[in-house]
Amino acid sequence: MALLVQRASMTGFLVFDNIARYPDAVAEMSSWLAEGRLTSVEDTALGGIETFRSTLLRLFNGQNTGKLVLELQR
To answer: CA-based diameter of the chain, in Å?
Structure first.
């Protein structure tokens, strides 16, 4: 609804749209990773299965940075 009201537009794509270029992308990104030019950011939440819902909601309210991981404690 916010896109409509603000007259914004959104365009998406799928990896499979460019599947023929996948080997090239893997090679280039692998070199970036080896050179330290590409990093992964993980936001890890510690807890049990009872914290799953609140952790999942962090994805939708902007409370996480990068990949959100719920690390289950035993």
So the answer is: 48
What is the rounded average pLDDT for all residues in the chain? Answer: 91
pTM confidence score:
0.52
Rounded Cα gap, residues 31 and 1, in angstroms = 41
DSSP string, 24-65: HHHHHHHHHHHHTS----EEEEEE-GGGHHHHHHTTTTT---
SS percent in the chain: helix, strand, coil, step 5: 45, 15, 40
Q: Mean pLDDT across the stretch 64-73? A: 90
**Residue 3 pLDDT grade (very low, low, confident, very high; cuts 50, 70, 90):** confident
Half-sphere CA count of 41, side-chain side, radius 13 A: 4
